[in-house]
């Protein structure tokens, strides 16, 4: 894992993706968009790096999602898997399902009030499935194998299990006991 990809803004406020090679300390521009009225999102799955380019609200720059295989992260290997003339919100989630990515899509029709919905996009055949009818969701969260959509103080489950199957926070007594055990092991190591 010698390479690190991250988004940054240049001195004109235009977003880009930087490819930082840790071994050499060298940084190169991997991708640069054309306008400060766009945002870039990175999403890493088991096999791919997904790059979302989303025009900011009513910029008219549209949206696209490009897939790069992790085995060969070069622009020539990119495949555009989604394109729209509308400015989507984005908030890509690509680590929930092997063959789908999730994001917030602009569903506005001509002359209508602007509105958005959560969707899934099959990365193999491009099929889009609308998951909500909430008018203005703004984010999606993958939490412990459940895809959540928080909105107005409620958490909607888009996909996954709605039963709490694990509580990763230990009870207070268990946490205190674990801390004591850890301290005891440290003392024994010092001797």
What tags apply to this protein structure?
14 strands, mainly beta, 191 residues, globular
Secondary-structure map:
Layout: E1 3-9, E2 15-21, E3 26-32, E4 38-44, E5 48-55, E6 63-69, E7 79-84, E8 90-93, E9 100-106, E10 116-122, E11 128-130, E12 141-143, E13 146-151, E14 154-160, H1 172-190
Antiparallel strand pairs: 1-2, 2-3, 4-5, 5-6, 6-7, 8-9, 9-10, 10-11, 12-13, 13-14
**Helix vs. strand class:** mainly beta
Approximate strand percentage: over 45%
CA-based shape: globular
The strands making up the biggest β-sheet line up spatially as 4-5-6-7
Largest sheet: 4 strands, antiparallel
Ends: how far apart? 38 Å
Provide the residue-averaged pLDDT. Answer: 87
Please describe what this structure looks like.
It is a single chain. With 191 residues, this protein is mostly beta strands. Helices cover 10% and strands 45% of the residues. It has 1 helix and 14 strands; from the N terminus they run E-E-E-E-E-E-E-E-E-E-E-E-E-E-H. The protein has one helix at 172-190, and strands at residues 3-9, 15-21, 26-32, 38-44, 48-55, 63-69, 79-84, 90-93, 100-106, 116-122, 128-130, 141-143, 146-151, 154-160. Strand 12 (141-143) and strand 13 (146-151) form a beta hairpin. The model has no long low-confidence stretch (mean pLDDT 87).
Give the gist of this structure.
The chain has 191 residues and is mainly beta. It contains one helix and 14 strands. The chain has one helix at 172-190; strands at 3-9, 15-21, 26-32, 38-44, 48-55, 63-69, 79-84, 90-93, 100-106, 116-122, 128-130, 141-143, 146-151, 154-160.
